[in-house]
Structures are given as C-alpha cells and as structure tokens.
Design brief:
Length: 486
C-alpha cells in the first residue's frame, strides 16, 4: 500500500517556545505495526515542566479576562480545523500507536465533536443568586471560577479523544493548561498544537510536555498546578492521588474497566454479538477503557453465542493498520504484547476454555500483534474474570438467573461501563438500577458517542466525570459571594 509513513519532528511546547530537546533525555519511538524505530521524542525534565507551568500561569490572567464569547469563537474555530485536518490527524494517530486507520478517523471525529460541544459552553457558565431579602440590602450569589493552571495527563490508547474530554472543557472554563501525553503517542498531538496556534489561542494557554512517569509526577506536584485531570490505570492513579494528597490538590481520575455485557435470552444476537466482538477485539486491539471485555450470557443462548463469536473472529485479520481489510491492530509495545500473552497462558492454566486465538500471529513477527482471543467458561473469580487485560481478549461467562447475572457483572472492583441486551423494558429498568457502573448502555448504545452525557467510573474505575455540564464543572469551582448593603 502507498501510505505516507513520515512522522513530524516532535517538540515540547512551552509558552512561545518550541523545544526540540528536553532535559529528561529522549525516547526512541517505535511503530508498533513493524517494530521499526521512527525517531526521537524529547522528554521533559523537571525544569521543562516548571517552565511550562510558569508559562501557563503567566497566560492565565489574559485568558481568563477574554470575553467568554471570544473563547467560544476560537474553540469553534479549533473544531473546524480538526475537521479540516482529519486525514492528517488520523494518519499520525496510526503512526502513534498502530491503531487502524478506520478507528483513528472516527476518534478524530469524536475529538472535533467534543470540541464544538464545549465551545458552546464557554459563554454559558452561570452562577445563581440565592437570596435577595425583602429589605433588598443583602445579596448572596455563587460564581463559578476557573482553577488557574490545570495539569492534564493522557494515556496512549486514544489521546485525541481525551483532548476533547479534558483540554477543551478546561479551556472553555477559562483555565490554562499543561498537557502531558504519553511519550508513546507524540505525533498527533504535535499537529494539534499547530492547530491550536492557528485557531488563535494565545501562546502559553496550552503547553505540551512529553514524557513518562517522572514528567507526570513533576507536573502533578508543581505548586502552581491547581487541579489534575488524569486518564490511565488504577496503579498510576494511586500514585497521583498520593502526590495530590500532600497539597490537598483535587484530581479527576478516568481509569480502567472490566465492563460486563449481559445478554439475556431475548437479546438481539445479530447486534449483540457484532457490537461486542468488534468493540472488544477490533477497537484499538482491545486497548479501550470501556470495552465490554466480559460477555455474561444466559445459558439458553450461550452455545449459539459461542458459535457466532468464533465464526466472526475467524474473519478478523491482524495486519497493516492502514489496510482497510485489517480489523486487529497491534498492541502498543512489545512489553504489552508479552504481558497479554502471559495473561492468556495463565487463563488457560486457570481452566478457562480457549475458543479462538491465544497466540502472536506467525506471519507478523516484527509487529506487536496478538490474535483475537476468546475464552469460554471463564470463572468470574479468576484473574481473567477480574483484571483488565487491555488487549484483544474476550471472556464469556454463563448465567441462569437475573440475580446471577447482576452478581457476575458487579463482581469486579471496577465500574466504568455496563452493557445490557434484552427486549424487556422492565428488565432494563431493573438492570440499570442494579449495575454498579458509571454508565449503563442498552441494546447497542455506546459510551463514546455522547459528549452531552457524563462519562466516568465508580470503584477503581475512578471518579469525576467527563462530558456534559458535569465535565465542564470539573474545571470550575464555585465562589460564594455575600454583599451587605447600607
Ligand atoms: P498509565 O497509568 O501507566 O499511564 C497513563 C499516563 O500516566 C501516562 O501519560 C504516563 O506517563 C503517566 N504516568 C505514569 N506514572 C505517573 C506518575 N507517577 N505520575 C504522573 N503521571 C504518571 O496507564 P497505561 O497503562 O499506559 O494506560 C492504560 C490504562 O488507561 C488502562 O487501565 C485503561 O483502561 C485506562 N484508560 C482509561 C480511560 C478512561 O477514560 N476511563 C481511557 C483510556 C485508558
């Protein structure tokens, strides 16, 4: 295939400066589809992070003083530029982490729609007058205010979606930002920074530092960072909360999941099987936080579901992410591939029944691929039943009664999303109330489409919300004002 595989030179973006080198050294970026080194990524050291936070702090008074309608205008312009450059942003997203071109195009579209949605909020932030007594001498009201400098930490699986979910509402609310993508995904955000400039967002309002844990830690701990918004795994979230605890800094945590998809006997199997198999195996090679990686299936339809899933998986090709025929992209690194394969081996030792896949495909030895893998009869209490794989692995479990289904679905420490398939509206109502999750999605509905709807977790899937008014108010704090008259 004739595809442009050139990558941009990557920089740290600090105020009005672009730095090709970081004091934290450099990371050699590897293309997951081929294992080839693509080029160096500058890593921000503590002094780069300090400079970025100071640039954001210096830009804050001016950005806050902008009329909200002006902030809305430049954010709308940014959404238009994202749409204009969809092809390039999608190409760079593939080169970032090896996701398929089809998925990368749709993720750019999601970022643009969140951006235009939150642009619409920028001039609609309002407080409330809460008392205006009869003598009219006392006025009490609330006033939402931005925090100041917000530190945003992204993970590598879909950084552009997180840009729409975090960066844009933070800006709409009047904050300035230092954003730290993972060093594993430097390319699409490099292009995004050019669009941010072109849209007319002043220098210093959005700063970007690349790096790993040390860079993230320096950002979280910086005394001028007033709030942290993080997407990543629960283990890192614990470290971030511990760092935040020292200065009692608030944080939003969007973490992992082990989401259940409960299929009752009356489920529309055409939709249920296709959506589930594609979202678990074919979306980012299973590296999605809200994917339904546990399929909890009623005994009456279990055998038919197994048959359909196995047939569907047989047609899912691993391969070049730019090839439209490819469904299964590589996972992000060689280490991730080895970790997933080791988990697959342990699942077999634990007694789960391997129905499909389970290996690295022989014909793609250089890329970081894992075959689409399906396990049946998974023990809900086993490692595979409890722990997020973050790879193309689907687990099937069997239930007899609604109570059993609820118990299985709620049996992990996570609680990001739950999915239900049934034609019975009364059952839907009961399940929505019984499922322990930040969101419940019924008969094919998907969590990622709705920028108007709050998204987030319970349990070790984190706290705080992204999307809707709730997502905007994560970046605002309310000031109470009392005015006493004569
Ligand atoms: P991770 O927690 O290892 O890394 C995420 C980010 O945190 C990276 O940018 C990393 O450099 C940074 N980081 C690492 N240590 C840090 C520290 N001590 N202080 C500050 N920053 C630090 O996550 P991962 O394993 O790369 O990503 C996968 C996880 O992300 C999965 O659990 C997945 O489910 C989750 N995720 C959640 C969502 C969501 O919206 N809920 C979306 C995508 C991914």
């Amino acid at each position: 295939m004739d595809v442009d595989l050139t990558v941009p030179v990557v920089h740290l973006h600090i105020g009005d400066e672009v730095r090709a080198n970081g004091s934290g050294g450099a990371y050699q970026h590897v293309y997951p589809a081929t294992g080839e080194v693509q080029g160096p990524v500058p890593l921000a050291g503590p002094d780069d992070v300090d400079a970025a936070v100071r640039a954001a702090h210096a830009a804050y008074p001016q950005w806050r003083a902008w009329r909200p309608a002006e902030r809305a205008r430049v954010l709308r312009r940014l959404a238009e530029l994202m749409e204009r450059d969809t092809a390039e942003l999608a190409r760079l997203s593939v080169l970032d982490n090896g996701m398929t071109a089809g998925i990368s195009g749709s993720l750019v579209g999601i970022m643009a729609s969140w951006t235009s949605y939150y642009a619409g909020w920028a001039d609609k932030v309002e407080g409330r007058v809460t008392s205006f007594p009869a003598n009219q001498r006392e006025l009490a009201y609330s006033m939402p205010e931005p925090y100041g400098v917000v530190g945003i930490i992204l993970t590598w699986n879909g950084p552009l979606v997180s840009v729409g979910m975090k960066l844009i509402p933070a800006l709409a609310a009047g904050n300035t930002v230092v954003m730290k993508p993972s060093e594993l995904t430097p390319y699409a955000t490099e292009h995004l920074m050019a669009l941010i400039r072109e849209a007319g967002i002043p220098e210093g309002v959005v700063n970007l530092v690349l790096g790993g844990p040390a860079t993230g830690d320096a950002l979280v701990r910086h005394p001028l960072v007033e709030k942290v918004s993080f997407t990543g795994g629960p283990a890192t979230a614990r470290k971030i909360l511990a760092a935040c605890a020292e200065s009692l800094k608030p944080a939003v945590l969007e973490l992992g999941g082990k989401s259940a998809n409960v299929l009752f006997g009356d489920a529309d199997l055409d939709t249920a099987v296709a959506v589930n198999a594609f979202s678990v195996l074919g979306t980012l090679a299973g590296q999605g936080c809200a994917i339904p990686s546990r399929m909890v299936v009623h005994a009456d339809i279990y055998d038919e579901v197994v048959e359909r899933i196995v047939a569907m998986v047989a047609g899912m090709r691993c391969g070049d992410p730019f090839d439209p025929a490819t469904v299964i992209s590589p996972v992000v690194t060689r280490e991730a591939q080895q970790r997933i394969l080791a988990m697959i081996e342990r699942a077999q030792n634990d007694g789960a029944k391997l129905l499909a896949g389970g290996r690295a495909p022989d014909h793609l030895p250089n890329g970081f691929f894992v075959e689409p893998t399906v396990f049946g009869e998974v023990d809900p209490g086993s490692e595979l039943g409890q722990i997020e794989v973050f790879g193309p692995v689907l687990s099937l479990m069997r239930f007899e009664t609604e109570e059993q289904a609820i118990a299985m679905a709620n049996s992990t420490a996570y609680g990001l999303a739950s999915y239900v398939y049934t034609q019975d509206i009364n059952r839907v109502t009961r399940m929505v109330s019984a499922l322990k999750a930040g969101g419940v999605y019924v008969n094919g509905a998907s969590p990622v489409v709705g920028c108007e709807l709050a998204f987030g977790g319970v349990g070790i899937s984190g706290f705080g919300r992204e999307g809707g008014e709730e997502g905007l108010f994560e970046f605002l704090r309310t000031k109470a004002v009392g005015v006493s008259g004569d």
